[in-house]
Amino acid sequence: MTTPLDNIPANGGIIGPDNSTSTGVKVTTFTADGNFTQSPTNSPAEIDYLVIAGGGGGGPGRAGGGGAGGFKTSFPGGTKLTSVPYTSTPVVVGAGGSTTSNGGDSSILTITATGGGKGGPFETNGSTGGSGGGGGTSDFGGPYSGGSASPGSQGNAGGNSVTIHTAGGAGGGGGAGGAGSNGAPGEPRGGPGGNGTANSITGGSVTYAGGGGGGADNRGGPTAPGGIGGNGGPGGGANASGVGPTPSQVGQANTGGGGSGDTWYTYSNPGAGGSGVVIVREATGQFNCSGMWPLNQVNTFIKAGEWI
C-alpha cells in the first residue's frame, strides 16, 4: 500500500552542493578586453595564467623588426595567483603596435606584461619593450643597437643593424624565447626575429611572442645587389619583405608577435605588431558537503545551479 510520503522525491539526505568528488579544468581565453569571473566551484580560489602583451610595430625606412610582447606565465609549475575574488575581475589585452609605436600592455590582477618595443627606423636604435625592437640601418656609421627587454624575464633584446657602405641590414626584434638576430652583410640581409616560446595552458602546445624580421636596403649596386628582409620568429613574428613584390607582414593576432621592418626603398611596407592574449586556467569540480554553509556561500552555489 502506498502512503502520501511515497510520492515525495528524496534527495538522498544531501543539503548543499552536490557531493561528487570529480574535478576538472576550465580554460578561459581573452582575445580582447573583458572581465574574468571565477568558477564558484574553484577552491582554493587560485588560477594559472598566461599573459602576452601586444607586439611592437616594425619601423619605417630600412628598419628593425618589432619586439614581441612581454610573456608571463605560471603554467606549468609556476606560482599561481591566489585569493582570486569571485567577483568580476578586469582583463586588459594589449593591442599590437603601429609602425611607429610599441605594443600595448596586457594584464590581469597583479600580473602585467609589457608591450613589445618598436623597431628602430633609419639611423635609430630599437626601442625597449617586453622584448626589444631591432636597430635600424644607416648609410654610413652605426651600427644601431636593438632595444633591451623590460625587466622581469618577459623577453629578449632586439638585434643590431649592420652597414655596408651605403647599404645595410636591420636587426630582428627580440622574442620570448631568444634575442633578435643582427643584420648581416652580403645582399644585405635583415636579421631574423627571435624565437617565441611554446606553452600548453590551453591543453595543446601553442607558440607565442616571436620577434619581427628586420628590413634591409635593396637599392642594389656592386656591394649590395639587393636586400632581403629577415624571417619572423616562430610564435607570430612577421616576415620582412625581400626583393620583388613581397609586402611586409603584420604580427599574428593574439600571439604578441612583432611586426616587420621595411625593406627600403622599393617595398617600404613596415608591418604592425600582433595583439596579445590573456588565458586563465582554473580547477573546477563539485566537492564533498561539510553539512554547514555560510549564507554567502549558499547564495553563490544557488546562482551557479549547484545547490540541491
How would you explain this protein's 3D organization?
- The structure is a single chain.
- The chain is mainly beta and 308 residues long.
- The protein has one domain (22-302).
- It is built from 1 helix and 12 strands; from the N terminus they run ββββββββββββα.
- A hairpin with a 2-residue loop joins strand 6 (106-108) and strand 7.
- It is elongated and about 75 Å long.
Q: What share of the residues does DSSP label as strand, in percent?
A: 15-25%
Distance, first to last CA: 29 Å
DSSP strand count = 12
Overall geometry: elongated
Low-confidence stretches: 2-20
Report the oligomer: single chain
Major sheet: arrangement of strands: 1-12-3-4
Radius of gyration: 25 Å
Keywords:
308 residues, 4-stranded antiparallel beta sheet, mainly beta
In brief:
The protein is mostly beta strands. It is built from one helix and twelve strands. The chain is elongated, with a radius of gyration of 25 Å.
Draw up the topology in text.
Blueprint: E1 23-30, E2 34-36, E3 47-52, E4 71-73, E5 89-92, E6 106-108, E7 111-113, E8 162-164, E9 167-169, E10 197-199, E11 206-208, E12 277-285, H1 295-304
Antiparallel strand pairs: 1-12, 2-5, 3-4, 3-12, 5-6, 6-7, 8-9, 10-11
